[in-house]
């Protein structure tokens, strides 16, 4: 790769040949790709660029699927809850679902694979029948509430459906998803791949749109998103799969195990043993079949890469089986620092970021501001990439839309040059990090590295943005970060961990919910902190109402939350301290997001750092030889990122680390690469910034940066 260009994948489009050639020069492109619904002309194929071809095997052969509808993918759906007014109840199970996406599977034994549940008692009812989309339930109790969990065929592949509806593709044929788990369907799909490779000799890189099973994406009767679970496994199901599962695991899954009373096993919920078994079952199958696909691609002397998203279920990139697939690279959508690190840290040969905004009409329309959106996204991605550079970048979507915005075209040139400068200055080495590890503790642990508090590709969500901010801050801070589960600490905290962070609402997998009733866990953590460890809690950490406590480690945190059960007990008046190491860089009010009310002092050693509406919103505590920090919420902003950095250093008893390769300007950040002798300063604001960098050896470096600017200097 030359030092001035490359590392860029451009979406091409037939009819845009002159523009493709122009942007290949302007953006210093070395690869071109198609997009869903587009093709590359022979002229584009002959431009001398690497050719990436998008291939989604599960929607590759509509003729075959029309001849073999029994191999359509399926999903478990839950009907709307209905109130019985007599001893018989009829429910239209498709009432709130998109009938162009789903149709009930009445081909199977519905009494084995469907389930009617009395939601008032939790009991199942065996006496029901189905005619079309109407389920008749007999033996109902008047004024009890009932639901039907039913198998449905997916008659429109969800990702192509989304693209179709978003881009208004009109009468274009609906693509039907194939379930490759059926042996005959799997064999057909492998042959389709062989034939496709034979028919695409110009393709250098096969970009699988992930692999076989879509995340849970359900549209309603108005063709609008009803429910999205980017981490879901409800769409891996079929009677065939369920039978195989029962044979292997020795027990049968019920529909309720997957519909989960309408929660569909949200990642905000502690996963059940049954659900973890189901995930493992699918991960093993998907990794095995995906390896067969990759081996075929390699046999044809092409590279095989995967888009991390879409049909991702089973390809958990931090799971036990992912590396067995043998992929050459992973591509993912990078919408912020968290998603950037989610992709960059995957153990694979090469990683590529697909930056936002996608070239879709939701941004690229009259009055749209693609430069503004890109700048917001790039500033977050860039600080994460400074910590863990990716190998390549690109965009997705339709060039015909993006080219209508000349300012955006110029802006991408700058982003591409900045991107390449990061890769070239890092040279594959590790940046300077503090001499201790920061561990994020939740119920998922390593399996969902950087995926904590995510809902879908960095989309804002009211129930998690107050905690996702801590992950966003960590993505670009000078610490080695690891994600651990409660099982990882039950026998004691690993010795290389200096700080543990626990963040989230009570009752969620992120905070831990019922795990905090486990005396092995609370004792192990408490002993670790009392002997010198550092603990950070955000929101409702260690929260579970048990044995008269809500915060189970209130003695460590120094604070407790009033939930109404001890309202009659007097609380100490909150006395805010005048100053503290953690808050030394604050330049205005702290943003707590949703925050947490009624947090009160629970330790005499507590230093109250901030109070809002009579509640403690930030505090530092010393317990034994250890330290803890509490914050009521932490949305991402530049001040909160600096605040978290100082808090981590304080609880680790490493205050001096806050000044190593650090800027005295809170709007800027420094990343040093000692092995290459280079360091960067980035301006995370849109306003010009100046300041001084402090190196560990006492040297200082002055900088003066334009808005969103970046500079590299010699150490």
List keywords for this structure.
715 residues; alpha/beta; TIM Barrel; Rossmann fold; Immunoglobulin-like; 7-stranded mixed sheet; 18 helices; 27% strand; globular
Quick structural summary:
By secondary structure, this protein is of the alpha/beta class. The protein has three domains: 8-60 and 167-227 and 270-426, TIM Barrel (Alpha-Beta Barrel); 437-659, 3-Layer(aba) Sandwich (Rossmann fold), CATH 3.40.50; 662-714, Immunoglobulin-like.
Can you describe this structure?
With 715 residues, this protein is α/β, with parallel strands linked by helices. It has 3 domains: 8-60 and 167-227 and 270-426, Glycosidases (TIM Barrel, Alpha-Beta Barrel), CATH 3.20.20.80; 437-659, Rossmann fold (3-Layer(aba) Sandwich), CATH 3.40.50.880; 662-714, Sandwich (Immunoglobulin-like), CATH 2.60.40.1180. It is 27% helix and 27% strand. The strands form 9 sheets. The chain has an 8-stranded parallel beta barrel, surrounded by 5 helices. Strand 2 (31-33), helix 2 (42-45) and strand 3 form a beta-alpha-beta unit. Helix 11 runs parallel beside helix 13 (406-426) and helix 14 packs across helix 18 (638-651). The longest helix has 27 residues, at 273-299. It starts with 7 loop residues before the first strand and ends with a strand.
């Amino acid at each position: 790769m030359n030092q001035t260009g490359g590392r860029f994948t451009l979406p091409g489009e037939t009819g845009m040949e002159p523009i493709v050639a122009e942007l290949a020069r302007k953006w210093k492109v070395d690869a071109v790709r198609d997009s869903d619904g587009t093709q590359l002309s022979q002229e584009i194929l002959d431009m001398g660029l690497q050719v990436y071809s998008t291939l989604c095997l599960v929607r590759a052969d509509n003729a075959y699927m029309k001849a073999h509808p029994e191999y359509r993918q399926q999903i478990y759906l839950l009907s709307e809850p209905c109130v019985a007014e007599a001893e018989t109840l009829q429910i239209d199970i498709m009432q709130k679902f998109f009938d162009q996406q789903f149709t009930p599977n009445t081909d199977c034994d519905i009494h084995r694979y469907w389930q009617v549940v009395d939601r008032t008692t939790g009991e199942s009812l065996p006496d029901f029948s189905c005619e079309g989309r109407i389920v008749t339930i007999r033996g109902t109790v008047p004024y009890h509430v009932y639901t039907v969990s039913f198998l449905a065929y997916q008659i429109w592949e969800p990702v192509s459906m989304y693209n179709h509806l978003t881009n208004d593709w009109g009468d274009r044929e609906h693509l039907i998803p194939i379930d490759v788990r059926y042996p005959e369907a799997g064999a057909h799909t492998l042959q389709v791949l062989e034939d496709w490779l034979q028919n695409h000799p110009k393709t250098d890189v096969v970009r699988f749109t992930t692999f076989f099973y879509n995340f849970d994406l359900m549209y309603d009767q108005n063709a609008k998103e009803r429910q999205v679970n980017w981490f879901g496994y409800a769409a891996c199901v079929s009677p065939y799969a369920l039978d195989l599962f029962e044979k292997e695991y020795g027990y049968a899954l019920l529909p309720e195990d997957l519909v989960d009373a309408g929660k569909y096993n949200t990642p905000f919920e502690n996963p059940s043993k049954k659900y973890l078994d189901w995930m493992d079952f699918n991960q093993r199958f998907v990794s095995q079949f995906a390896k067969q696909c990759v081996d075929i691609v390699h046999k044809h002397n092409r590279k095989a890469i995967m888009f991390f998203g879409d049909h991702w279920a089973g390809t958990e990139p931090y799971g036990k089986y992912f590396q067995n697939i043998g992929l050459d690279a992973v591509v993912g959508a990078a919408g912020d620092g968290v998603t950037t690190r989610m992709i960059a840290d995957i153990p694979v040969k090469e990683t590529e970021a697909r930056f936002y905004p996608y070239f879709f009409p939701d941004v690229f329309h009259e009055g749209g501001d693609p430069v503004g959106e890109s700048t917001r996204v790039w500033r977050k991605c860039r600080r994460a990439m400074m910590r863990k550079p990716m190998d390549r970048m690109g965009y997705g979507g339709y060039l015909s839309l993006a080219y209508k915005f000349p300012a955006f075209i110029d802006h991408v040139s700058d982003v591409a040059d900045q991107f390449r400068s990061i890769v070239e200055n890092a040279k594959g080495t590790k940046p300077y990090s503090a001499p201790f590890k920061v561990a994020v503790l939740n119920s998922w642990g390593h399996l969902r590295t950087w995926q904590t508090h995510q809902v879908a590709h960095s989309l804002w969500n009211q129930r998690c943005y107050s905690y996702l901010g801590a992950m966003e801050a960590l993505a670009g801070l000078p610490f080695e970060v690891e994600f651990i589960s409660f099982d990882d600490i039950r026998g004691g905290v690993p010795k290389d961990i200096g700080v543990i962070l626990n963040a989230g609402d009570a009752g969620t997998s992120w905070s831990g919910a019922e795990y905090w009733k486990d005396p092995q866990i609370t004792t192990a953590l408490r002993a670790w902190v009392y002997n010198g460890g550092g603990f950070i809690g955000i929101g409702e950490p260690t929260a579970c109402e048990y044995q008269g406590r809500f915060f189970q480690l209130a003695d460590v945190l120094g604070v407790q939350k009033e939930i109404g059960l001890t309202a009659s007990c007097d609380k100490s008046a909150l006395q805010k301290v005048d100053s503290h190491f953690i808050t030394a860089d604050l330049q205005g009010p702290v943003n707590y997001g949703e925050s947490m009310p009624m947090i009160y002092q629970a330790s005499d050693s507590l230093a109250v750092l901030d109070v809002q509406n009579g509640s403690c919103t930030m505090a530092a505590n010393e317990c034994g030889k250890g330290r803890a920090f509490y914050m009521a919420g932490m949305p991402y902003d530049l001040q909160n990122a600096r605040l978290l950095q100082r808090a981590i250093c304080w609880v680790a008893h490493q205050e001096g680390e806050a000044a190593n390769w650090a800027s005295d300007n809170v709007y800027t950040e420094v990343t040093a690469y000692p092995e290459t002798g280079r360091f960067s300063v980035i301006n995370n604001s849109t306003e010009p910034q100046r300041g001084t960098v402090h190196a560990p050896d006492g040297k200082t470096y002055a900088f003066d940066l334009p808005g969103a600017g970046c500079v590299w200097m010699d150490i």
